[in-house]
UniProtKB/TrEMBL annotation:
Transmembrane spans: 6-25, 37-54, 60-80, 92-114, 120-142, 154-172, 192-212
Enzymatic reactions: 2 GTP = 3',3'-c-di-GMP + 2 diphosphate
Origin species: Comamonas guangdongensis
GGDEF domain segment(s): 251-386
Spans annotated as Disordered: 388-407
Biased composition (Polar residues): 392-407
Keywords: Membrane, Nucleotidyltransferase, Transferase, Transmembrane, Transmembrane helix
Name of this chain's protein: diguanylate cyclase
Matches recorded under PROSITE patterns: GGDEF (PS50887)
GO molecular function, one term: diguanylate cyclase activity
Classification lineage: Bacteria, Pseudomonadati, Pseudomonadota, Betaproteobacteria, Burkholderiales
Enzyme Commission (EC) number: 2.7.7.65
Amino acid sequence: MVATVLVGMLCAHLLCFSVMFLLISKRLQGKKMGMDFFAMGNLLLGLAYVLQLLEGGPAWSLMSVVNHTLTLASPVAYWLGAMRFFGQPVPLLRPLLALAVAYSVAQVLVQWSLGPVARYAMLSGMSALLFLIMAITVIYGVRTFAKDLHGEMVFFAVLISGICVLNALKFMKLLEGGLDALQMDRNFQLVFYIYMSFLATVLPPSIVWLILRRLTDELRGIAARAPMTQLLNRRGLKETLQLCFNARKTEAAYLLMLDVDHFKRINDTYGHQIGDAVLCHVAEVLRATARRGDLVSRLGGEEFVVICLDTDTQGVLHLAERLRLAVEKQALRISDSDQSLHCTVTIGVSQSFANKSALEDAMQQADTALYRGKASGRNRVELFQPADSHHPVQSMSSSTRQISPMI
Ligand SMILES: Nc1nc2c(ncn2[C@@H]2O[C@H](COP(=O)(O)OP(=O)(O)OP(=O)(O)O)[C@@H](O)[C@H]2O)c(=O)[nH]1
């Protein structure tokens, strides 16, 4: 009786969460992250338990063959769903149909040649094997494809190992005690159903949590980047810098402010579309030339900021010169024409700073040095000098800046 109630509740859980997964997958539209596959996994397992309730006990019937096939197909659907979640474009229906046909034929052959115990043992053995492979893959994922989901993956590995062990025990009990081991109210079967009910309650919210994490990470990524260049924006720069200082990855940082020279002329001569292409080109050159770990951002207009971590004054001046040279040397080919467009940048470099609250000061310093560079002829690197604070270089509006030909 207790076991029947447990299995009944298990069915209700599985089928309700199947509908919920389906609704979420519809809501996610194009990028379903495997939710439709998880819905299918829950549906197959839910139907398998419905058939088990209808059967009552071990029997050789079409219903039993279908029940076993559905039971084995559901972890395969979860498995494929997990692959989808991690971005693999795997199909669902064809593998499931192939499995259903192959496993149904295998059941008939095993029942006919080895008897009913062997057929039930085959289901437990195959399930244990599937869950073992799943647990190993999840543990492998902690170190490779799912590094960012470390805690969640360990949690899944523990849960999957539990069901793997229970299926292995069932396999052995069947070999030792025959079909009697499957009586629903036996202690082992009760433990089995309690664990399955626990999984059916805990796993779906955990999967929804994974989806939520992916979505919020994506939203945070979108909010932290400028759409045109895909570089960090001001908000993204501040957040990433804070993370670097929090993780104590860096003791001190330098801020480089880069401004495209005579950018207004580029816009006026070639139009805003080419102006935008120049900004994307400069962004790409900066991204490719900066060191791994340096933070490259566009704050707006034709101004870029690079934050260099783990270096000293000599190192940052060297890097700034490398960036300046890279922009000067790499021309942008204008599409639909043989022309290529050269541009240059002027770079102001701040003094070193060691926490996020000093960021605004560092920007001010780099800005002051940048304007000194503009006043001194552009296409150059200028380091902020403490004396600049006493005799600040006047910020020049575009109308008072010296304009020299550059294209
Ligand atoms: N195409 C394009 N133009 C932009 C964008 N943001 C700002 N601008 C233009 O960039 C130009 C900046 O010009 P100025 O600030 O006068 O500076 P400049 O011509 O680069 O001269 P210097 O900085 O003194 O060398 C302005 O004409 C802005 O309209 C953008 O996203 N795309």
